[in-house]
Write a structure and sequence with these properties.
Layout: E1 13-19, E2 28-34, H1 52-65, E3 68-74, H2 76-82, H3 84-97, E4 105-109, E5 120-124, H4 132-153, H5 161-164, H6 170-179, H7 191-195
Parallel strand pairs: 1-4, 4-5
Antiparallel strand pairs: 1-2, 2-3
């Protein structure tokens, strides 16, 4: 069972996580989620440990139950300009920007974060497997991004984004080698190095 709160001092907490950081194509998405005090959902877990169907069902429940939730994205052009780590933090900031009123504490999945002005934060390694609000954020970021990539697939079906979601699978690398880059590919992600891998 994941923990419902980081502290018991009554401070409103928002869990934050991103999805798509290791992709060759598509935006990076981030979510910020404020759950009710003492919220419990036995199905909540790190999005990577759930099936697509489980994530979709939980997305509906989270969006219904959360006091507030917001999802934001940063596209490939800006990712290339500022790097993926800064872009991931920016996406989190953009999601937090939309929370009103603001939480008193941000729970960040991972070990680094660019401080958000006026709100304290706590970085928690593998936090999406520890705290419900971070797990909820991981699920929303992942499902919203998957939905976005499936829509892009309609325009670029050769790359299999409806299945690989822009991650560097063998199929995706082969498609890049055969058809070239799209406007949605991240140019700074060492695509040439990816293509040196076995494409057979």
């Amino acid at each position: 069972m994941l923990k419902s709160v980081f502290s018991d001092n009554g401070i409103t907490e928002a869990g934050c996580d991103e999805a798509g950081r290791g992709c060759l194509a598509g935006p990076v998405f981030a979510a910020a989620v404020i759950l009710p005090p003492d919220y419990h959902n036995s199905q909540l877990n790190d999005s990577k440990k759930l099936t697509a169907l489980q994530r979709e069902k939980l997305r509906v429940q989270i969006e219904k139950d959360a006091i507030q939730w917001h999802v934001a994205q940063v596209g490939p052009e800006l990712i290339d300009r500022i790097n993926i780590l800064k872009a991931s933090f920016l996406a989190m900031h953009l999601a937090i920007d939309q929370l009103n009123p603001k939480p008193g504490l941000l729970l960040i999945d991972g070990n680094r974060f660019t401080p958000y002005s006026g709100i304290n934060h706590q970085c928690i390694i593998k936090g999406d497997g520890i705290y419900m609000s971070i797990a909820a954020a991981s699920i929303l970021a992942k499902t919203h991004r998957d939905e976005f990539m499936k829509a892009l697939h309609q325009e670029f079906p050769e790359y299999g984004w409806n299945k690989n979601m822009g991650y560097p699978t063998a199929f995706h690398r082969k498609a890049i080698a055969k058809f070239g880059l799209t406007p949605w590919n991240r140019l700074t992600f060492n695509v040439s190095e990816q293509l040196k891998l076995d494409l057979k």
